[in-house]
Design goal:
By secondary structure, the chain is α+β, with helices and mostly antiparallel strands. It has 2 helices and 4 strands. The chain is globular and about 25 Å long.
């Protein structure tokens, strides 16, 4: 399970890279839908700020 922390700059790289379509823009920053997330880690590699962490 991954989560996006406040370091997110809302660039959209994670959403573009997500094969499951589990990431969308939220109120403060992008968010991961845990019901759709495959826990593949593709978004982690795509994030330029390292804001996506495994929980």
């Amino acid at each position: 399970m991954y989560t996006i922390e406040s370091d997110c700059i809302s660039c959209g790289s994670c959403a573009d890279s997500c094969p499951a379509g589990a990431i969308s823009e939220g109120d403060q920053h992008y968010e991961i839908d845990p019901d759709k997330c495959l826990s593949c880690g593709t978004c982690v590699d795509a994030c330029p700020t390292g804001a996506i962490v495994e929980k």
